[in-house]
Design goal:
CATH architecture: Alpha-Beta Barrel
Shape: globular
CATH class: Alpha Beta
Largest sheet: 8 strands, parallel
CATH superfamily: Aldolase class I
Amino acid sequence: MKKYLSPLQEAAEKFPQTQLWNDSCGIADIELALSRGGCGATSNPVIVGNVLRKEKYLWKERLETIIQKEMLDATDEEICWQISKEAGLKGAEKLLPLFRESGGQKGWQAMQVNPRFYRSTRKTVAHAVELSSLSENILVKMPVSQEGVAAVEECVYRGISVNGTVCFGVPQAVAVAEAIERGLNRREAEGLSVKGLFNSCTIMTGRIDDYIKKLVHEQELPITEEYLDFGGEAVFKKIYKLYAERGYRAKLLVANNQSHFLWTRFLGGDLLMTVNPVWWRRMEGAVLEVRRTIDEEPDRTAVQELLDKIPEYRKIYYEDGLLLEQFNSFGAFKNTMNEFFKGYDGFIDYLRTYILG
């Protein structure tokens, strides 16, 4: 029997259709993932801020050059995005050989647009154009706000590979898939190629569970505690089946797996999965059963109790649970965007210590 260095390495080898990505653009993080079968990476300003802190020794000289020579009249936010782009490019360069070897099926580096643009289709599209031009293997992420759905369609039409993120359920996931189809159809109607486009939609399974638990504890709802760990999995698997039935050309991406429980629940699916760099490290030498689980149904009693007792869960479980104009006001969306804003501001504050000297 083959001995694996990590259950993640075993999963990558046994289920290559389930692409495992590292939820980081840090060089050390990407190198570890690649050595264990990982085949993609993600970034956003919050992730870049964390990478900058961890890999400070790699960035100190470059930061000083940018601040003291190249961008003397730049704002702290402009410097933030210069660093974000360069960090994403470092990751893209690491992944580029795999990207070319796989014909663009693997080796993507995801970069996220400025979260402050979530209410503007025009600004989101403009930033996506800028980011996608950095390298051939850049996948541009944008929040699935009401305005973000329109941006997804326009970007796909322009030939940009996109990912709809900050997405929590069936209504948003369907909106993203339909927007991608419209963008692809517009290109095809004009005789433009859709070859090489790699589009996806993220379902934040871990954040679904976190949001449900928060509501239950705040409202002191009577519910079996263990059932609260099935919400995100059930939503994702429902969407996964729906995408397959309708023949959507977008892939699903499962994200926010705070524990080994969540990343092991989707193995064998034709999907993308971002794994926190913490788990890439903690799984080294771990003993864990690795088997196909994408077809395993979540506990039906648990899911039914979530539906019966938590109105917010029904909003994301049913396709008509949220209208497009309600995306921006959904609780989990607001919570996550606020976290992005705080992390983004924290990164800028961190950079300011270098700028001020």
